[in-house]
Structure prediction request, 87 residues.
Amino acid sequence: MTSELSTALNLLGIGMITVFVVLTLVVGVGKLLIRFVNSLPEEIKKPTSAPARTSGMNPSKVAAITAAVDHVTFGQGKITKIEKIDN
Prediction:
């Protein structure tokens, strides 16, 4: 029984060490990738947002829709057209 317990504990230790090493490598490579990407010059310019085609909608509704899209997409979304869909 002691040899079986010893084998089990050895496998447990080797497994835990392996997981620790792999996760350490993942975190290290992730940090290096972040530093590399942040060091690149930012050549991408934000496009100027053209006003959405609203087809005569109430301006307060357009403002609410625009604010909701801006909030949900963290400022990255762009509204190109707003139209009512009949169900």
The radius of gyration is 27 Å. The chain has two helices and no strands. Residues 2-39 form the longest helix (38 residues).
